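Q: What does the assembled structure look like for these inputs?
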Amino acid sequence: MRSEPVSSPGDQPLRARYAILRGSRAVVCSFLASRLLIIAIIVLSQMVFAPGRFGQPTGVLPVLTNWDGAWYLGIAEHGYEFQPGVESNTGFFPLYPMLVRGIAPVFRNTGFAAVVLSNLFLLGAGLLLNTVVRLDFADPIISRTAVSLLMFSPVSYFFSSAYTESTFLLLSLAAFFAASRKQWLVACLCGMALSATRNVGLLIGLPLFIEFVRQTWKRDAGCKSLLTPRILFFALIPLGFLSFMWFTRVAFHDPLAYAHATAVWGRKLVPPWQTIANAKSLPPFHLWVFASLLGAALLLWATGIWLKVRLSHLVWTGLLLATYLCSNSLEAMPRYLSIVFPLFIIMAVLTTRFPGSLETIFAVSVALLTICTALSANGYWMT
Amino acid sequence: MASAQLAAEPRTSRSFVPPQVREFFRGTGIVFIAFFGSRFLIVGIILLAKMIISPGHAWIPGGLRTMLTQWDGMWYLDIARHGYFARYETRANISFFPFYPILVKLVSFIFHDFRVAALIVSNTCFLFAAILLQKLIKVDYPDEKVNRAAIMFLMFGPASFFYSCAYTESTFLLLAVSAFLAAVRGHWLVAGLCGMCLSVTRNVGLLLTLPLFIEYVRQNWDTKRGLRSLIHARVLLLGLIPLGLGLFLFYGYVVSKDPIAFVHGHGAWGRKFVSPVQTFQSMKVFPPFYNAYHLSVLIVGLGVFAAAFIYKLRLSYLVWSAMLITLYLCSNSLEAIPRYLSVVFPLWITAGLLVRRFEWSYEVALASSAALLSLCTALFASGYWIT
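A:
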């Protein structure tokens, strides 16, 4: 199934330079269509739905900046605050709010700036996903399908919200793309930014290292073949995470302030069976949606092994899934899964194997997106 | 050649499926995938929506069967259970045509549950309607992509959950597509019988006479012989179509001494023949969501219908679509317009042609369609007014 890379940067420098723009029209089309659809669903559903428990926000922007978005905007506007034992914004990592704060003066509205930033990152992530898929699969239908499934994924409205999803997705794809082109400084700088976006960003070190080994390993030289100065770039990856720890140590005398803050929301490292046992406490709708999407993700991951998808992609997926399974709660599972981009690649490959399945999978995804967006827009708990 | 025949022989003798049946189902894999995919999706949305969405004003307790047999479905089940009554001071079930409830009654002898029987009739009719539509499209457009897109739009159309409800949509669609397919293949007795059943399924079924006559003229017209070329015993078979409606009128006369009892019954729902301007004026009474929903579906439907002229669809398809759309626009209300448009099958064919021409639009159109389908299904399941 795997085909040779479409072009090699060394052989065709110009084509490689603009590789990210190949097939970009389809990506932009998917991006615009999915965003307009989300706006339409928000507007239409607010006309007819009875409000949920948390009150009906009016308009599109409040929908895209509530829940965690409000925490990120709080950090961008007022900085960090930490009080042990109560909900604190140190549970949220700093890169995204820093970027929002950076561009907020242009828009004079922090919420709007955050939404613009998230959407730009999503567009960038779409272009990068299209390129990353083409590295392994020459068939343009696979890359186009992967991008469409990403844009219309069940909770893809979070990519346009004041959340870190699109930033995380962009940085992880950029890191893999740079790694595939042997630009290890760029890849590790992206990894560093990723670990300052979310704690799980730190995990990218392993798949990037696997990619490094794949490219550098020489059987006759053995382990010595890996000992090049470029390997030192990997030390950059934890720097993002450590910088945040250092900051909270200086500001609040607690380097683990982020972990203590997330513990208030019930997040802690537990065995997977405890996370699954805790799922019983979720309301039926959320239990069904979260559990079935997690089940589908695990199945896709196993299928990815069978389809011999790139090892680094499989390891990245496995690490993220394992972390989610050990996080004490299935809450926000669809959102967490939405950033595991290899799942979209595996789904795209599968649809080419089974004709007629593409439209069905696509329609199921759009249907879930519609329901989740409508619920989120009308004061129902969707996180 | 001989050795190939010898090799094929044992395989044929082992098959218990008659060759005609195998031929009928050949190439229908995509229809089955889309059918089961879309139906499971609808069932999933109904079950999920009932778990979380705050109930609307018309909420009724019950499970999946109750949800799929509410609104008009209850009227059809009432006819299947107890027959007709005609009382004009209240809404009367004589407004609902008998063919679908007759089928439900017949199937209920097997399943002993009218709701299950109704759902089996609707879903079976829908599956066969899709298979026959696929065959009908192949007659004029052998391109597999056109066919596939048309079937997907049919399956994931904004009102496609009605095909699986106790409504007449799937029966109507099956009979209309069957009549056209039979006519195109020159089987005029089958076409006439399907047309007869169609005119007993819904009043607009009567309109099929004209497009089928156009198809008859297209096949039999001989410039040298002029009108005489049309004079053949087969043309009388088209008379079966109004016969169906005639029988129902006669029944209405016997039951209530009023042959147009169904027309009087319709009046109770505010349905009457008016100018399209008046139909649009009646929008004022609906809340903004319904106006946005009905209008956007109608505009897209009219746009696709206009494109059907550009793509030069068969004249009979164009006339059938034009008559149905005109009648809906003159029915004093845009209520249920997405459902009514869902049976105008030439629109699905044109949509397939359009996305074949503009490939980028397939994803956009399918996503919009699936989104509206899920939103409307969720509202339908939660007791909001969706009819």
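The CA atoms of residues 34 and 297 of chain A lie 22 Å apart.
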